[in-house]
Hints:
- Belongs to the cytochrome c oxidase subunit 2 family.
- The chain crosses the membrane at residues 36-58, 70-89.
- This is C-type cytochrome.
- Residues 1-21 form the signal peptide.
- The structure is a single chain.
- By secondary structure, the protein is an alpha+beta fold.
- It folds into three domains: 8-98, no CATH class; 104-214, Immunoglobulin-like, CATH 2.60.40; 225-324, Immunoglobulin-like (Sandwich), CATH 2.60.40.
- The chain has seven helices and twelve strands.
- Strand 1 (104-111) and strand 2 (114-119) form a beta hairpin.
- It is elongated and about 100 Å long.
Amino acid sequence: xxxxxxxxxxxxxxxxxxxxxxxxxxxxxxxxxxxxxxxxxxxxxxxxxxxxxxxxxxxxxxxxxxxxxxxxxxxxxxxxxxxxxxxxxxxxxxxxxxxxxxxxxxxxxxxxxxxxxxxxxxxxxxxxxxxxxxxxxxxxxxxxxxxxxxxxxxxxxxxxxxxxxxxxxxxxxxxxxxxxxxxxxxxxxxxxxxxxxxxxxxxxxxxxxxxxxxxxxxxxxxxxxxxxxxxxxxxxxxxxxxxxxxxxxxxxxxxxxxxxxxxxxxxxxxxxxxxxxxxxxxxxxxxxxxxxxxxxxxxxxxxxxxxxxxxxxxxxxxxxxxxxxxxx
Length: 328
């Protein structure tokens, strides 16, 4: 009779992937549930080996003596369930201990196809890039302005739904500074593939300084005639949809452009934030991102596009450079 052996290297590979995807999560819930999943998976592999071995041994023994292996079928499941139960209780106690009292909260509002982050108790708002401190628990509350969305940050195990008229809650804690990529995992429209965001995690003292300076930020006076022209173009073409600190957009249908110069990407993480890419985005956003609500400004002269770019790039806190963070 031909025998079929379980490819243990496949089981080991799957176990390693589960370990990488969940156990090293920076989210407290993901960390503990990932650790428990690792134990359960390991016990499942051990149980499969033991039961298959006992089955083969029992068949051989039954042929010779007529006696089976009934005790094995009872003992193995009872022991495994007991051990997994103890591990589950340990994980529950860890979750209860780590899941309390976030340091602060952020209201996350999903839009087609961008993300808005409002830091509770402050005037600070960011769009598409969320700045958080390392090692600090933070409560995120999710809602949506239009359709069903869901934010997933795979490296941390975070996944939360954003539903119109409702608030869902997630507690997150990022262990180390760096850049973490996030995606919308709902099919929220034609632009869903580019409905992205970034979490920029910095040291706690750097975050405190950032939040303080961002709360006090006001657009700097235009330093050149080019920036002055850009400010005039922004007021006439952009200000009805986009907010810059101190000048609230009446429509508010577009991302907040306060501190745009500090962002690492444009168009909800569609492009690196460079002057050249910003010029391209202004001229032809619909060609770069399907179903985007921003119109193309192809009729603008090169001088006007350069002026608008210079004005927007000046909206920044000079002492912060998030491009220096460890990249994913």
